[in-house]
């Protein structure tokens, strides 16, 4: 083993300022007050409960019907629920994966075949950076504010073959507007760069539900989009990540996909179809009201605490950052942990400059309101104790 390589700590040894975000999320998994990971853990709605009651029927359907049909229906229901009407329907263009991180690994390996470096949005969830770097790619931080302010500096394209953007971003919730996406796609097309999007949080924000595929397609850019059902519905991590790509991508994504999996379970595909139909028939609006009300509760519980700020006032994502002037996120994380409450210190989201995240904490909002309220009261207590 190389002496210079950074060794990740074993699970039980993870502390708030070491390891990656997911290792901190592991520690929270058995707590009643887990507001760390971004997965959906709230109670099922009445409509969703009906689908769970029908699981034996969906299993039978998965046994009987051709998987190709179930997959086509799941994709159609999902993309239509989220306004993505121009998604590609030709065979092989939407690759169903066990999770969006598996899609990300397939993309990273594919990029590494022909590209040396990727301009990656900063901050964002650290496993995106880790998967790209793990496949030997060099990373250039693309500051989120610069991305939203206007055109990218053309100098960037001299040193990068791919621009990777998370929208809505995790943890900030910032959304790339239709106008910005149009220009970004034009710029990438003009410079021959691949444009990659991770839209895993788009279901929470109608501002991210304009038809992205129409814009990508019209620009002529080589594009890839990672979609995810995993953040939206409390399905015990039964989910699908999708790697969607342009016909001119020129990367071996289908080959590498086949190295890793044959396909996802037809039971899960049938379930995704039903949850998507429920979302389109009012489930999404219900989810938006639920998250907005949890967000309002968090903000009002923490309002007027000295030095506590709301860094992302416009966010509609299912996560909320809290700015803390007088303590580090890691210190607050430690105080909360003593009460069995787990949030996420934000250092590692700033994958190129962790200290930029020193004074923020991320809370998960896709939780039942009761335990979330108790967790936020513990946070208020932790922030006021000497
Ligand atoms: C979030 C978990 C992985 C990831 C959580 C996440 N980590 N896949 N290594 O799904 O925001 O908490 O995205």
Walk me through what this model shows.
With 386 residues, the chain is of the alpha/beta class. It folds into two domains: 21-44 and 282-384, Aspartate Aminotransferase, domain 1 (Alpha-Beta Complex), CATH 3.90.1150; 47-276, Type I PLP-dependent aspartate aminotransferase-like (Major domain) (Aspartate Aminotransferase, domain 2). It is built from 13 helices and 13 strands. The strands form three sheets. A seven-stranded mixed β-sheet has the order 2-8-7-6-5-3-4, sandwiched between helices. Strands 9-10-13-12 form a four-stranded antiparallel β-sheet. A two-stranded parallel sheet has the order 1-11. Strand 6 (194-198), helix 9 (212-219) and strand 7 form a beta-alpha-beta unit. The termini are far apart. The protein binds (4S)-5-carbamimidamido-4-hydroxy-2-oxopentanoic acid. (4S)-5-carbamimidamido-4-hydroxy-2-oxopentanoic acid (EGV) binds at residues 22, 25, 37-38, 101, 125, 127, 170. The site of (4S)-5-carbamimidamido-4-hydroxy-2-oxopentanoic acid has 8 residues, from helix 1.
